[in-house]
Design brief:
homodimer, 15 strands
């Protein structure tokens, strides 16, 4: 294995070696100089990480403040971030943190036409994978009713930070008929009312929001989410609120208020009830689960082409979320796929609800 | 000044000396052996702190689990905790943390018949002070419409941890016509339906909840709050949510769900809307204030008998909440009192809203 500048992160405790099948690769566990967390060095190539994008909470001032040139507006899809790349004669999917995702790697041939990576072996596809059949998060867009779908939103080249320009990316998306996020066109910072109307429509349609990418050399990016996304995130996770940082919930309530206030939302009374219902109905569900089964958990159901990848996923989940917190229910062939069902235990919520439903004291 | 076992806390960094007028006294900044945080040694006497009381989140199992004997049920009033004691020829009011509270000390003669402390100079009155005219917290019970009121809920003796038995306390309350918390009688752990009905009535009346005190030598205590209290706390503080730990809000939502679920709340749709409205309406208020005045703050208005105590309060507030965050608006005589008006700046919320309303980025 050749040595790259990223190997210098090892003595700083910002990189470590990982094994996956016959691969050994280096993963940045932290940002190191210009390379984001999740950058990897594998088979002598560097695949840069996908850095987090700053969020604006107000449209009008945010556009004015963030953009010095027109910008592309694309849908932000509610799923998990992967990078697909050809390594040797395999296509591997890397998670945000730089792990190889056994699920996405397994299903990649179903999710996109991978011929592009044969013909352009130095390309990296940056994409969101979303849907009820994914193993990581509990929410998904309402318009994806089963399994998962993939949406390309950027392309990189191996060994290079930064992304292909929008026209080049779009040409490749069209040429290979790749599934991609919707593009809502190129806008200028003064087109506030158009974008306000777009955000209202996306909220109506149950979409998470937009990522905006400046059409300039600096390629500055920012994101903005809809009121729908704020409420839906709370609804989807409140049943395990003790397993997440409290800031997760408070931050979404704040985003929601700032979004609605700027939109001059007419249906405010509806949103009040939706927010209250997102919090309370999810907690009732958790209380009911705790009373019935003495634990709070979520069952995931994922399809695999190769059952070995299902086992690799469980191993990966056990490592990242705690061995005792992931339990296989079944792994069986059904039609063309192996169906993996597993429970993810919400340990903190299980402990807390068990304690207080049993009459225990809490101090705060 | 005589030396007490509490002085041994000094080398452990759990006690420090404080000055107030001509007094120098020792204050426990942390629990030390059996003495709670806020215990003080002044004028050769030890006044024990008022320890925090564990909370149950469920009535039926909580009563069964916590109490081995009948218990007294008293109203928990939404205010701040003080201990009133005679020191030399003065009555001083100590805050939960063991500071001398200049406001309560000033107003003590208005709030209770202090003759009890002349005739029983070793008594300490433990009380809640509540109302819109108090300097510390922003919420108050809806049934106190102006200024403040005091409610005695326990009595201690100087130099002794633990409280006077309920009959002895109640006899003294009656004898001196002291304002005291309402007592809802002596109950047994199996009287679940009576207490459920009581909690529903207290929620209706806008009361915070109850403290329950076992009628036994161990005098075990626990508290339980109403749905009203959970929503009202959020409504009263969400305008400065970044200045409080996020757990403050998440904890109250969880309490609310557990309370309602146990009560089998019929009016659930109302509570959903109230919860959503508590979050959103308070945040709109903060956004409006930030847009209009570039800061988020709360104005307190307190009455004083002696203007020197008003100055002492401001000095105390500046020390405990940050010098730049407390600003006097006016201090003027009106009728029998000096009116102090001051603003408490919510610095974190001011900073965050200024940043995001101006179009700044946030990373999370």
């Amino acid at each position: 294995m050749s040595v790259s500048p990223l190997h210098e992160a090892i003595p700083h405790n910002k990189a470590r070696y990982e094994d996956y099948e016959h691969w050994q690769f280096l993963r940045l566990t932290d940002k190191f100089h210009e390379a984001p967390r999740g950058s990897v060095v594998i088979h002598g190539k560097v695949i840069y990480g996908y850095p987090s994008i700053g969020r604006i909470l107000r449209l009008e001032t945010g556009l004015k403040h963030q953009f010095h040139a027109p910008f592309w507006v694309e849908e932000k899809v509610d799923g998990y971030n992967v990078r697909l790349a050809r390594v040797g004669d395999q296509v591997l999917a890397f998670s945000r943190g730089g792990f190889i995702c056994p699920f996405t790697t397994d299903r990649a041939p179903d999710l996109a036409e991978l011929r592009i990576l044969e013909e352009h072996p130095d390309l990296v596809l940056c994409a969101e994978v979303a849907g009820p059949g994914q193993p990581y998060i509990s929410g998904h867009p309402p318009y994806i009713r089963e399994d998962v779908q993939l949406f390309v939103f950027d392309m990189m080249r191996m060994g290079q930070a930064g992304y292909l320009p929008q026209p080049e990316k779009q040409a490749l998306v069209r040429q290979y008929a790749l599934p991609a996020v919707q593009c809502y066109g190129r806008h200028t910072p003064d087109q506030v009312s158009e974008l306000r109307a777009l955000m209202a429509r996306l909220a109506e349609e149950g979409r998470e929001g937009v990522v905006m990418k400046e059409d300039s050399d600096r390629d500055h990016r920012t994101k903005l989410v809809t009121s729908y996304s704020c409420v839906d995130d709370i609804r989807g996770t409140v049943d395990h609120l003790r397993d997440l940082p409290a800031e997760y919930f408070v931050g979404r309530v704040l985003r929601l208020a700032l979004f609605l206030e700027e939109q001059g939302e007419a249906q405010l009374d509806d949103v009040r009830r939706q927010l209250g219902s997102a919090f309370l109905d999810g907690l009732y569900r958790a209380i009911e689960q705790s009373k019935q089964e003495q634990r709070v958990y979520h069952t995931h159901r994922c399809l695999f082409r190769d059952p070995e990848n299902a086992k690799r996923l469980l191993k990966h989940m056990k490592r990242t979320t705690g061995h005792a917190h992931v339990a296989q229910r079944r792994l069986e062939k059904e039609g063309d796929y192996y169906v993996l069902e597993f429970d993810k235990l919400h340990a903190a919520m299980t402990g807390l609800l068990g304690h207080v439903l049993g009459g225990g004291l809490v101090f705060d």
